[in-house]
Amino acid sequence: MQIKKLKYYDNEYKWDLKEVNFLPNLNLLVGVSGVGKTRILRAIHSLKIIANGASLNGVKWDVCFIADNNLEYTWSGEFETKESTISIDENQEENDQVKLINEKLTCSNKKVLVERQNSEIIFDGNKTPKLSPFESVVELLKQEDQISPVKESLDKIILADSESVNKVWRLPVSIFKKFESSSISALQQSGLPAPIKLAILYRTLPEEFNKIKEAFISIFPNVLDIKIEAMKDEDIPIALSKILREATIVSIKEKGTKSWIENISSGMMKALMYISELYLAPETCIILIDELENSLGVNCLDDITEIVLDNRKSQFIITSHHPYIINNISPAYWKIVTRKAGLVTVKDSEYFHISESRQKAFIDLINVLEDEADLEEE
Fold it and tell me: How is 35-57 classified by DSSP, letter by letter?
């Protein structure tokens, strides 16, 4: 999948993203703190959430993308806006849902596949039986041959959230049994979180796991080996035995030591998760990374940035404040984010006449951001 254009509006928070044109491989969102870079990633990820049946209060979207079948689709829609209320109601979950006011899905030949106006849905020219007013047509009609490529493509939007990864996680036996005989491709397409994929890979496809291990050791040459195994019963407190029954933990062995180290650093863990996310992501997916540099040591930045730059099968949309990352990515891939009140604008570096020379480009960028900040204050 590849996003070409996106417009997004959140009426509840009065946040308006003007139309953004994305590059097919790499997009680096740069701008001052608080300008809306992270919210852009969340807006893109919300497309996947909506496609899976979520109801988002006050959200309006219009996205153009190329699906895995190489056809171009435009999908737009709008949810009603409800005032936030506190209710003690047994049907609270249903009350929290908001209805879709309108929705439209067209294909590259401008053919309207599905159109919704309030409670009426027209699919392929025919009125459907009454369907849920809270769920998108992509979710409701995902079994249809004309809609399934759209659903499958939107499911390939991945938010690489290594900040929330714990050093201990569960690998349910049922999940392991389901994928224990799977190929690397099936595991990549599974939709499982990266830590779960990594734990399965370690147990079932050691040769493939070694590729991730080698990449990790190239960043941390003091590391000799990695293992990802279930916690031993004697290491689990009795009070937590039920919770940690299927717990999995990462351990490393370093040069000069004979014992395995379980309490690895957060920087090491984040680097391992980034490598795993990139290696175990399905082909032609969209990978969203917020502030790539967070928790990564200086020794990691070079290697992780190279992994991203070398990947030309996926579309990356990344935010960063770090001079090293910005300087090592050509200005041709920069998307400069500015904001005035609730209106967020994203423009290419060419719009601001930023130099093509990387040495001068960063200085130009700083000047542009300072000028935009001054305008916002006015």
Answer: SSHHHHHHHHHHHHHHHTT---T
Which residue among 247, 264, 280 closes a domain? 280
Contact 336, 365 (CB under 8 A): yes
Q: Are residues 245 and 100 in the same domain?
A: no
Distance CA 160, CA 193 (A): 9
Query: Are the beta carbons of 271 and 279 closer than 8 angstroms?
Result: no
Residue 18: strand pairing partners: none
What is the tens place of the pLDDT at every residue in 51-105? 999 999 999 999 999 999 999 999 999 999 998 644 444 454 556 799 999 999 9
Q: Alpha-carbon distance 184 to 137, whole Å? A: 31
- Domain match, 273 and 308 both: no
Question: Does residue 167 have a pLDDT over 80?
Answer: no
Do 303 and 223 belong to one domain?
no
Contacts of 69 (CB under 8 A, 6+ apart): 149
Residues 207 and 292 in one domain: no
- Decide: residue 143, CB within 10 A, 0-12 exposed, 13-18 middle, 19+ buried: exposed
Boundaries of domain holding 217: 162-280
Q: What is the CATH number of the domain that holds 117?
A: 3.40.50
From 260, 280, 300, give the residue that closes a domain.
Answer: 280
- Separation between Cα atoms, residue 264 and residue 78, nearest integer Å: 45
